[in-house]
Every structure is written in structure tokens, then in C-alpha cells.
């Protein structure tokens, strides 16, 4: 998106793609903060945003919160694309688990097992602490993470933020067919993000 004055750096989290290691919530957060430090050392006074998609939205809010609480530094903004409130809510609402939800052991075997493995991705708790601008993007036809989770996260943030103007929720109508994975393909997205950040 160089023509839009954005530069994007993406990473393979540990255990994914070309990265070695084992996936863990704390490890993912450490990876993002390492990338942040690398970019910060080379970007001068340029704005740095955390942009998370799907599972990455929990990682983005974790990293932003850790940066703020442990270093006293705010990321310039957080953008959450197709987010959820926390991993437990996500697992309880994704379509693939629908058939299992009525079974008595569902909560223990599926939902509680993630907590036992240290997987929480509590964006709903993280946004209560953040002060940076927060943009939430969700498509109405998201078939993986229901838009109600994005809206619930927005309401949680809006209630917690002192400056309500820093929090924005944008929905994309079903007719656009963006689903869970294609919001970034929307040609209006760079302008929407720029407007949110008041970039000229």
C-alpha cells in the first residue's frame, strides 16, 4: 500500500509459516513486540499501527496493552479486522463448533482446554486498558467470527475509553461479499483508515 503512504510488515508467528518454535499466546506477543522494536528503531517519527486479523486481533491488543503497561509507551493505533472478544467466546461461536455445543462435555473439552493451555486472547479486557485510537472492522457476512463479537468488543471499548472519539466501528454490508477474509480487498479501506487516523 505504498501508494497510500502505508508500509506493511507482517510476520509469521512462531510455529507458523517459515518460523520455528511452538505457538503460544505469550510467544506471539513477544514476536509482535520484537517486530515493533525493529520497526521503531528504523522508522523515525513515523506512526506505527498494530493491525490484527482474526486470531491476530487478540495478539494485537495483547501487544498494545503490554507495551502500554510495561513500557509506558502507546502504539499509535490498533486496527482490528474481523475480531472477537476473547478466544473462549470465539470458540463458542464459530460455526464449526455448532454441532458440539449441545454435548455436555463441550465446555470442559473445548473451551476450558484452551484456558488450561494458557490461551485467552482477552481483547475485551485489553481494550479496557488501552488509550490509543482503536478501529474495529467487521463484515456483516463474516461466516467465521460473527459480527456480534466485533460489536460487543466495540461496546466494551467505548464504555471504557475516556475519549470516545478514539474508538470507531465500521461494518461492511453483506452485499460486498467480504466475509471473514476479504475486508483488506475493499478499495475504500485505505481512505477509511486514513480518515480514522486524520492523515492528510
Automatic annotation (TrEMBL):
SUPFAM superfamilies in alphabetical order: alpha/beta-Hydrolases (SSF53474)
One of the GO BP terms on file: monoacylglycerol catabolic process
Cellular component annotations (GO), alphabetically ordered: endoplasmic reticulum membrane
One Pfam family matching this protein: Abhydrolase_1
Ranges of residues in domain AB hydrolase-1: 5-83
Gene3D superfamilies listed in its UniProt record: alpha/beta hydrolase
Record GO terms (molecular function): monoacylglycerol lipase activity; phosphatidylcholine lysophospholipase activity
This protein's name: AB hydrolase-1 domain-containing protein
Amino acid at each position: 500500500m505504498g501508494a497510500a503512504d502505508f508500509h506493511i510488515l507482517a510476520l509469521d508467528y512462531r510455529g507458523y509459516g517459515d518460523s520455528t518454535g511452538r505457538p503460544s499466546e505469550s510467544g506471539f506477543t513477544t514476536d509482535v513486540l520484537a517486530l515493533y522494536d525493529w520497526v521503531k528503531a528504523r522508522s523515525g517519527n513515523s506512526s506505527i499501527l498494530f493491525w490484527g486479523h482474526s486470531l491476530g486481533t487478540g495478539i494485537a491488543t495483547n501487544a498494545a496493552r503490554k507495551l502500554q503497561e510495561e513500557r509506558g509507551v502507546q502504539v499509535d493505533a490498533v486496527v482490528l479486522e474481523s475480531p472477537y472478544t476473547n478466544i473462549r467466546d470465539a470458540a463458542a461461536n464459530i460455526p464449526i463448533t455448532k454441532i458440539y455445543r449441545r454435548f455436555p462435555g463441550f465446555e470442559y473439552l473445548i473451551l476450558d482446554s484452551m484456558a488450561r493451555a494458557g490461551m485467552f486472547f482477552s481483547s475485551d479486557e485489553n481494550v479496557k486498558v488501552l488509550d490509543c485510537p482503536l478501529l474495529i472492522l467487521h463484515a456483516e457476512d463474516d461466516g467465521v467470527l460473527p459480527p456480534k463479537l466485533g460489536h460487543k468488543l466495540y461496546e466494551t471499548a467505548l464504555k471504557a475509553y475516556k475519549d470516545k472519539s478514539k474508538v470507531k466501528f465500521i461494518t461492511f454490508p453483506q452485499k460486498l461479499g467480504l466475509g471473514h477474509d476479504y475486508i483488506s480487498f475493499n478499495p475504500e479501506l485505505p481512505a477509511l483508515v486514513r480518515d480514522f487516523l486524520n492523515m492528510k
